[in-house]
Design a protein that fits this description.
Layout (H helix, E strand, L loop, with lengths): L1 E10 L4 E3 H7 L4 H8 L3 E3 L7 H16 L8 E5 L10 H9 L5 E5 L5 H14 L5 E9 L17 E11 L4 E7 L7 E2 L20 E2 L1 H22 L9 E4 L4 H10 L11 H4 L6 H11 L8 E8 L3 E8 L1
Helix pairs in contact: 3-4, 6-7
The protein binds coenzyme A.
């Protein structure tokens, strides 16, 4: 048994900050950001646009798209590194907001690989026959973790949420490859402010996202194709059999490099970071929702999803649309 995506949804904050707005905050330019990252704009949450608010709006859109009621959901998993509250978990807040009274709810933190790992977790429950109807969300308000004085990071990130509804089907294919490299965790970090050592200095730089951009770039362009190749080899498939490669939207140069290494046309690698920046765990489900609503995905097509990010962690999943 596998979970088939039967509905997608997304929600992004109303406010849009373009590159020119960032050039007012730090020493940068629209040209530099576009050329090095492919990002032109990002959506930035207002105070009331919390992670749970964005997540529940994305969830409601996905339920509507799937044509199912919130009460039918048996499990909700939200991937996030930027929850509004440490407890209750964002998934429980979503449950309350959408009225999914029958669902078991928990959150998962795997940074930018979060949605992929949440999807894999949902699929494992489905394969075991434990749950049949599952909502998987990626939701972030990274603007709360962004140091707006650090030009090496603030140009990259944005806020948003995406969600998919999975329904059990007897047939269909799902396979996954996942890896973590804790030893390299220091290249992409954000320390919790809720610690005694920060009582006197709650805005210490290490409590915002910090990154060794070059190391993260090298990691992504080598490990993402490796994971995809490992997955396809295990599944006895070839890249030519894959219709869409839906990658985490961190940087257009990373996506181009992966396409080149796999010797595949960029046409198979949709990108939307121009509009949203890197929304961490939300980027893959937001992109899936856009592709779905534009009717660019056809039943039976093969998708490879791939996430990578802090941990370090990365992986690739194969699914049939
Ligand atoms: N605007 C203008 N100049 C900038 C800048 C900015 N926002 N940020 C850095 N620079 C400058 C640097 O100071 C450096 O100047 P110098 O040559 O005079 O020293 C120059 O631009 C090149 O900096 P560098 O850090 O080598 O740039 P880069 O080509 O590596 O690009 C990133 C920087 C962050 C865009 C790139 O490393 C990257 O995308 N890494 C991956 C990040 C990522 O995806 N993270 C999330 C993963 S989930």
């Amino acid at each position: 048994m596998t979970g088939k995506i039967c509905g997608t949804g997304s929600c992004v904050p109303k406010a849009v900050w373009d590159n020119r707005k960032l050039a007012e905050l730090v020493d940068t330019s629209d040209e530099w950001i576009r050329e090095r990252t492919g990002v032109a704009r990002r959506h930035i949450a207002a105070e009331q646009e919390t992670t749970a608010y964005l997540a529940s709006n994305a969830a409601q859109a996905a339920l509507q798209n799937a044509g199912i009621e919130a009460e039918e959901l048996e499990l909700i998993i939200t991937a996030t590194i930027s929850p509004g509250d440490i407890m209750p978990g964002t998934s429980c807040e979503v449950q309350k907001l959408i009225g999914a009274v029958n669902a078991t709810c928990f959150d998962l933190n795997a940074a930018c690989t979060g949605f992929l790992f949440a999807l894999n977790t949902a699929q494992a429950y489905i394969a075991q026959g434990i749950y049949r109807t599952v909502l998987v969300i990626g939701a972030e308000t990274l603007s709360n973790l962004t140091n707006w004085q650090d030009r090496s990071t603030c140009i990259l990130f944005g806020d948003g949420a995406g969600a998919v509804v999975l329904r059990t089907e007897e047939t269909g294919r799902f396979a996954q490859v996942t890896h973590s490299i804790g030893e390299k965790g220091g290249v992409l970090t954000c320390t919790s402010r809720n610690q005694k050592k920060y009582e006197g200095s709650p805005t210490a730089p290490e409590t915002y996202m910090q990154m060794d951009g070059k190391e993260v770039f090298k990691f992504a362009v080598s490990k993402v194709p490796e994971a995809i190749e490992e997955l396809l080899k295990r599944e006895q498939m070839d890249t030519s059999q894959i219709d869409h490669f839906v990658l985490h939207q961190a940087n257009e140069r990373i996506v181009r490099s992966v396409a080149k290494r796999l010797k595949e046309d960029m046409k198979k690698f949709p990108v939307n970071m121009e509009e949203y920046g890197n929304t961490s765990s939300a980027s893959i489900p937001i992109l899936l929702d856009e592709l779905n609503r534009r009717e660019m995905l056809k039943r039976g097509e093969y998708l490879v999803l791939s996430g990578f990010g802090a941990g370090l962690s990365y992986g690739a999943s194969l699914m049939e649309w």
